[in-house]
UniProtKB/TrEMBL annotation, chain A:
Listed GO CC annotations: ATP-binding cassette (ABC) transporter complex, substrate-binding subunit-containing
SMART domains for the chain: AAA
Keywords of this entry: ATP-binding, Cell membrane, Membrane, Nucleotide-binding, Sugar transport, Translocase, Transport
Protein's recorded name: ABC-type sugar transport system ATPase subunit
Record-linked Gene3D superfamilies: 2.40.50.100, Nucleic acid-binding proteins, P-loop containing nucleotide triphosphate hydrolases
Keyword Methyltransferase annotated: no
Originating species: Actinophytocola algeriensis
Lineage: Bacteria, Bacillati, Actinomycetota, Actinomycetes, Pseudonocardiales
All residue ranges annotated as the ABC transporter domain in the record: 3-238
Matches recorded under PROSITE patterns: ABC_TRANSPORTER_1, ABC_TRANSPORTER_2
UniProtKB/TrEMBL annotation, chain B:
Residue ranges of the TM segments: 62-86, 145-168, 254-278
GO biological process: transmembrane transport
Source organism of the structure: Actinophytocola algeriensis
Record keyword Cell membrane present: yes
UniProt topology in membrane: Multi-pass membrane protein
Matches recorded under Pfam families: BPD_transp_1
GO CC annotation, single: plasma membrane
Protein name: Multiple sugar transport system permease protein
Length: 327, 288, 458
């Protein structure tokens, strides 16, 4: 089971006639059993891509294949895709059990059969006690679990998640990441998960697709994207901190991750003045002129101090100044 | 709990303009009063007369019939138009919305006179159209059931306010709920019956209650202007009868008895949708 | 039920319709009706609910005592009139003011709404000082204390009732006192369209023509697009036929306790009308629903129709219409029914002296001459009725003498408070017999069942 998107183009007409390319030639594949995370800032086209796969948006050009079948013209309801919405999209007038079972009912399954399926899925997700409640009586995490149950119950070919954890608090978010992975493993289908949260992308994705301005800039395993960002844009956006990109020399931009920058009181390297120091637990972020460094708290300099920043040559990334592409 | 002073102007207004006159009308209901001399208390005489007043109960029956047919039709029309015109933006939607609202912009009396022409047996376009289509003309102004049908037609299309309210209720439903049904493969019918309508239900319910009152009351204008209660009292609705009792025969005391009675009956009728909705909601909640 | 109107023609809603249709000819009429209606139509219950409040407010101003005010104090006069008639009353008012009378505010109300407006005006304590009302409808107002007997007031203003025809004075005498002063002595006549008679080669109606002549004439006039005659299904139209045939409407004209339309003389008269309708010489149900009789007459769709003098101002305005009037056909005795309106002074008026002065002028030589010239009235003052102001053949109808010829045979319907409702009941039932083909006996039984209790109630 797999999802393939080929040459997807989608243009929106914004207000006052301006045209916006939401998808500008996107190629993407989510392999069987894979959790593909699409990450990017808002407006990058990631949600549109998800809606295109689900069949909620038609494409201007390109095609979508699910299990090698071209579904570009197939309506959403016949693509056999599960979609978990941001903020769960529960039906406020229906109880939890009815919310979980509504898809089955929509497809015409008999009520009695749906009831047993609902109970089964609820047991797997450990939400049986919630079945008799109304959505308004649920916490944020419980709502998302119900939404996951609704996705699971149909054994879809593809599972799509649209920022499901955006409105969940930090602690719960950590736990839910694990649960989503578990669900994905139990379903064994490709899962496409859209988020703007870099940390979540790194933590959850088998592979990560970084999007900006309607294009996929890079699609690879998280470690590779982190280690070898394909463009300056990826380097800037992917990772716990944006990569330092130094002014171009001879048409080459040099980049170095703040995690790899060392701050010394003396010695060789780029000399500069500490502009700001932000404590971040065990470590702190130090800005020396235009270079950001992450250093242990114990080594933290004071603002205004004269320091020298260095890094190992092998930690340098080189990009074409004009195209931004990795060299 | 300390916000009640904010309601004071409203409460004072409704007390002065509604409750006090209502109380006085209720008091007048037990008198003989013709508007010239002070009312004369007559005890339960008016109630005895009311009980035996076949014409009034016939009129109540006609009002009930009209409400029973017109209220569902009006709701169907208002909600139907709201569902049809909720979807896209654009010129067609704008024109459609304007068209749905337009009849309500026309004053009731002008609307009634317009229908008087539309239904005219010799010169009206509707009988002419039916003639062309080969549909038998029910005799909109000439036969009892034809006149009642005409009355229903006059009263059905002025649903602009209800349409706007229903449209607002429809637009308040988050798009993702419908997308969820779409992804799950639900038919448009399923989406409408299991999602759209249940979510609009509380508003539709309010509309039903309001319509019940509006229809019973508004039946007055078309009956006065279009059918004049005829032919042979076939469209003599309760408000028109009360109007005649009060202003043509000058019996204001007994007319008060009738109008208070009608008020109570309308109240009971308006409670009907509320009761129905409570049953539906309980049913909805319990099932998968 | 259809609305009764002061003059006695029963206006159905269809007349409003026809006005709407024939907009070019009748715009003012349609507009007058609908606009007045609009003012009170939409909020019936609110209006009803508001009455008690007005009552409380008006209670404070009810204390007017014996003071009759200055004879030139400003007064309000309400009349029920179509636009053409209203113009006649307007000229009367300005002539009065020029002749040194006090200020008069004329409130012309469409005929359908006249009674309603009057009732609400009284209920809200804002009654006009003077109002014009038909004798068939004034009884409830007198019985309920709305009217100040006009006899003594007029005597003070120098009016001698001996100068007036007696029949209307009798009709407006209630409880032994003259309550209101009649302005006219109209009666039911046959309006006929001269052009249609000529086209059909039918001779003009003769005086004292028989019912058989009438039926034959109606039949001869009926042809493509034209019906011979139109008769409203109302008791005021039927009454003279019933009387002419030796029947009665009620058991006792002075103190009626039951209707007698089912008795042989009356029933036979009604049956003759049903037979006439059955002959196809009258407009069918759809034609009646589509357009009122006066409008059908004006537009040449009926060749004859029965009404009183009230139609004249509007008919005169209709271009190209050449009409005249003829006496009612006779079944047995020659007889017609009185149509008469009178000026009443409201009992609460603080300006009774001024009100009486105005009424004296209106029913006096000058006033009656003005209204007679306008075509609206058959003067109740003998000297004017026999003057050229009324009789001049220069303006249609040429045969106004017909109205005067009817005077010796005039009778009037009973004066009793429940009469307006009785008329509605009879009208609704006659409509069933005339238009829906319901057997006459069934309808007559229903009239007894519904109307008799009304007569007995008060």
């Amino acid at each position: 089971m797999s999802v393939v998107v080929e040459g997807a183009r989608k243009e929106f007409r914004a207000r006052r006639g301006a045209r916006v390319m939401a998808l500008d030639g996107v190629d993407l594949e989510a392999k069987p059993g894979e959790l593909l995370v699409i990450v990017g800032p808002s407006g990058s086209g990631k949600s549109t891509l998800l809606r295109v796969i689900a069949g909620l948006e038609p494409l201007d050009a390109g095609r979508v294949l699910i299990d090698d079948r071209d579904v570009t013209g197939v309506p959403a309801g016949r693509r056999d895709v599960a979609l978990v919405f941001q903020e769960a999209a529960l039906f406020p007038h229906l109880g939890v059990a009815a919310n979980i079972g509504i898809g089955e009912r929509a497809r015409g399954t008999r009520r009695r059969d749906v009831e047993s399926r609902v109970r089964e899925v609820a047991r797997v997700l450990d939400i049986e006690p919630l079945l008799t409640r109304m959505p308004t009586e649920l916490s944020g995490g419980e709502r998302q679990r119900v939404a996951l149950a609704r996705a699971m119950i149909r054994s879809p070919r593809v599972c799509l998640l649209d920022e499901p954890l955006a409105s969940v608090d930090t602690e719960l978010r950590l736990r839910m990441r694990g649960e989503i992975r578990a669900v994905q493993r139990s379903l064994g289908v490709p899962m496409v998960h859209v988020t703007h949260d870099q940390v979540e992308a790194m933590a959850m994705g088998d592979r990560v697709a970084v999007m900006a301005q309607g294009r996929v800039l890079q699609c690879d395993i998280p470690a590779e994207v982190y280690a070898r960002p394909a463009t300056t844009a990826v380097a800037r956006t992917f990772g716990p901190l944006p990569m330092n990109l130094l002014p171009a020399v001879d048409g080459v931009v040099t980049g170095v991750r703040p995690e790899r920058v060392r701050v010394n009181r003396s010695g060789a390297g780029r000399a500069g003045t500490v502009a700001a120091v932000e404590p971040a637990g065990e470590e702190c972020l130090v800005r020396v002129d235009d270079v950001l460094a992450r250093v242990p708290m114990a080594d933290a300099p004071h603002p205004g101090e004269q320091v020298v920043v260095t890094w190992r040559p092998e930690d340098e990334h080189h990009f074409d100044a004009e195209t931004g592409a990795r060299r | 709990m300390r916000r009640w002073p904010l309601a004071a102007p409203y409460l004072a207004g409704s007390a002065l303009l509604v409750l006090v006159p209502l109380g006085l009308a209720a008091a007048l209901a037990f008198t003989d009063y013709f508007g010239f001399r002070a009312p004369e208390f007559t005890g339960a005489d008016n109630l005895t007369r009311l009980a035996a007043d076949g014409t009034f109960w016939d009129a109540v029956g006609i009002s009930a019939f009209v409400a029973a047919v017109v209220v569902p039709l009006r709701l169907l029309l208002a909600v139907g138009a709201a569902l049809l015109l909720a979807r896209r933006r654009g010129a067609r939607t704008a024109v459609g919305r304007a068209a749905a609202y337009l009849p309500s912009v026309i004053p009731d009396a002008a609307w009634a006179l317009l229908w008087l022409w539309i239904l005219n047996p010799l010169y009206g376009p509707l009988p002419a159209l039916l003639g062309v289509l080969g549909v038998p003309d029910p005799g909109f102004l000439t036969t009892p059931w034809g006149a009642r049908l005409g009355l229903v037609l006059v009263m059905t299309f002025q649903v602009g306010e209800a349409f706007v309210v229903a449209l607002a209720a429809r637009l308040a439903i988050p798009a993702r709920l419908h997308e969820a049904i779409e992804v799950e493969g639900g038919s448009p019918w399923f989406a409408m019956t299991r999602v759209t309508l249940p979510l609009m239900a509380p508003i539709v319910l309010v509309l039903a209650v309001r319509d019940m009152v509006v229809v019973v009351q508004n039946a007055f204008v078309p009956t006065l202007l279009v059918t004049d209660g005829g032919p042979a009292n076939a469209t003599l609705t309760a408000p028109l009868l009360i109007y005649r009792r009060a202003f043509e025969y000058g019996e204001l005391g007994y007319a008060s008895t009738l109008s208070v009675t009608l008020l109570v009956l309308t109240g009971i009728a308006a409670a009907l949708p509320l009761w129905l909705a409570a049953r539906l909601a309980a049913h909805q909640r319990a099932r998968t | 039920m259809r609305h009764t109107v002061p003059d006695g023609s029963r206006r159905s809603s269809t007349s409003t319709l026809s006005s709407l249709l024939a907009c070019s000819a009748l715009v003012p009429r349609a507009c007058a009706r609908s606009s007045v209606r609009t003012a009170h139509a939409p909020s019936l219950l609110l209006t009803l609910l508001a009455i008690p409040v007005l009552l409380v407010l008006s209670a404070c101003s009810d204390g007017a005592g014996a003071d009759e005010g200055s004879p030139t104090a400003p007064i309000t006069v309400q009349v029920g009139a179509d636009p053409e008639e209203a113009a006649v009353y307007r000229s009367l008012v300005s002539a009065y003011e020029e002749a040194g009378g006090g200020e008069v505010e004329l409130v012309p109300v469409s005929r359908d709404d006249h009674l309603t407006r009057l009732s609400t005006a009284f209920a809200s304590g804002d009654a006009p000082d003077v109002f014009l009302i038909n004798y068939r409808e004034y009884a409830p107002f007198v019985q309920r204390g709305a009217v100040r007997p006009i006899g003594p007031l007029l005597a003070d203003a120098g009016v001698d009732t001996a100068d007036y025809y007696e029949e209307p004075l009798r009709a407006f005498t209630y409880d032994g006192a003259l309550q209101c002063m009649p302005q006219n002595i109209s009666s039911l006549v046959v309006y006929w369209n001269r052009a249609l008679f000529t086209q059909a080669g039918v001779p003009a109606p003769k005086a004292d023509w028989s019912w058989a002549d009438f039926v034959a004439t109606a039949g001869a006039l009926t042809r493509d697009g034209v019906k011979g005659v139109g008769i409203d299904p109302s008791i005021v139209r039927m009454a003279p036929l019933v009387w002419s045939n030796g029947g009665t409407i009620v058991d006792d004209d002075a103190a009626p306790t039951r209707t007698t339309l089912h008795e042989p003389g009356a029933r036979a008269a009604l049956q003759s009308v049903v037979d006439l309708i059955g002959s196809g010489a009258t407009p069918d149900k759809e034609q009646l629903a589509a357009q009122g009789l006066p409008e059908q007459f004006m537009t040449g769709k009926v060749a004859m129709f029965l009404s009183s003098r009230v139609e004249v101002p509007a008919l005169r305005e209709q271009r190209g219409l050449d009409f005249d009037v003829a006496g009612l056909p006779v079944m047995g005795e020659p007889v017609s029914v009185l149509h008469s309106d009178a000026y009443c002074v409201a009992s609460g008026s603080e300006n009774a002296a001024a009100a009486a002065k105005f009424v004296a002028y209106a029913v006096g030589q000058q006033g009656q001459t003005l209204t007679a010239l306008g075509g609206r009235t058959v003067p109740s003052l003998r000297s004017v009725a026999t003057s050229p102001a009324f009789l001049s053949p220069a303006r249609a109808p040429a045969s106004s003498q017909v109205f005067l010829d009817a005077i010796p045979h005039l009778r009037h319907t009973p004066v009793t408070p429940s009469w307006p409702e009785v008329e509605d009941v009879i009208g609704t039932q006659l409509e069933r017999a005339f238009e829906d083909g319901v057997p006459l006996d069934e309808v007559l039984a229903e009239i007894r069942k519904q109307a008799d209790p009304l007569l007995q109630s008060r």
